[in-house]
Amino acid sequence: MDELIKEINQFRDERDWRQFHNAKDLALSVSLEASELLENFQWKTSEEAIADDLENIKDEIADVMIYSLMLADDLGLSVEEIIRNKIKKNGKKYTIEESKGKYGKEGN
Amino acid sequence: MDELIKEINQFRDERDWRQFHNAKDLALSVSLEASELLENFQWKTSEEAIADDLENIKDEIADVMIYSLMLADDLGLSVEEIIRNKIKKNGKKYTIEESKGKYGKEGN
Amino acid sequence: MDELIKEINQFRDERDWRQFHNAKDLALSVSLEASELLENFQWKTSEEAIADDLENIKDEIADVMIYSLMLADDLGLSVEEIIRNKIKKNGKKYTIEESKGKYGKEGN
Amino acid sequence: MDELIKEINQFRDERDWRQFHNAKDLALSVSLEASELLENFQWKTSEEAIADDLENIKDEIADVMIYSLMLADDLGLSVEEIIRNKIKKNGKKYTIEESKGKYGKEGN
């Protein structure tokens, strides 16, 4: 992961792009890329979307992750740490006993 | 990264949740979580949003990444590979020569 | 429509809220409300979502439209005019002859 | 408004497109169009975005409204009624006394 973040930052710095990056527009960009990912599934089933353009799905998942990693890095966050913390929180919110095989809408 | 994906899958499997996960709803969920991240910045500057609730920003970045990692894993994709491929593509689209210090809207 | 916009503006002005409204955050808010609408359909079929919470679906469609109307009004746009213009554009892009019974992904 | 909805439905019916429209994909489409609207503001101030491409902003607001109107119509809803109801709810949630000149993040 650290290696990936280094490569992403190298890409930004070689182009002097960090000056344009602020947290609000990076969060906005994560949302825009997530929509471009979702667009692959518009009017389609999962199977149809995957059959139609898995290459674009790959690229859009990558874009969502790249912007998320840049935002986390600019905020001085360790992605692994915030993911582990969130999994822990989710584990308390959705205990195995209460959640096994059950799926509500709230956040899961 | 592989370790994180293992922990995320363990979380799903302990709860028998994979049966509910399909690519379309996972992509939809990435988009919903990206909006919850963006909501932190609604009517605010980057600085105000970070000062107001960095904890929630952390959690929402984590949720975006967790859903993206689940989707990638369900599609049999290596996240590191698709990110590296996308960085390569971006490098060809935005050459250092042409892009240094310049920032257009198209996709960057 | 004009009557609705009047009522929405009256709501804003009674609370002195227009000072907080700028086009970027209004567009951001349209997107956030659209996600809250979409959240009703997460992990669900259309039928399940409608059965589960039609009331919330109504409220979120309304919120999307309210923010869209505020943005259009702040930009001095006639909503009816921009909708009619867009329908005309779409009619040229998707002629009846070529589009009848056929549905692509591009924008329709 | 009724006139607009008639024209939108005529557009759909001339192309036999209603068969493809379901509430989940229409809600998804509202969200995608809202993102295309928001994309106009990526890395920009409100003023820069408006100066750069007001025409596209007009078209995207129109697309958000067209999909919202189709969804509402397919659900048998009166757009004016759901908007008026939501304004009423907001008026109770944000009383003039408590809200005048104050702006929180929760939903306003």
Automatic annotation (TrEMBL), chains A, B, C, D:
Pfam name, any one: MazG-like
Protein name as it appears in the record: Nucleotide pyrophosphohydrolase
GO MF term list: nucleoside triphosphate diphosphatase activity
Species assigned in the record: Vagococcus xieshaowenii
Lineage of the species this protein comes from: Bacteria, Bacillati, Bacillota, Bacilli, Lactobacillales
A GO biological-process term: nucleoside triphosphate catabolic process
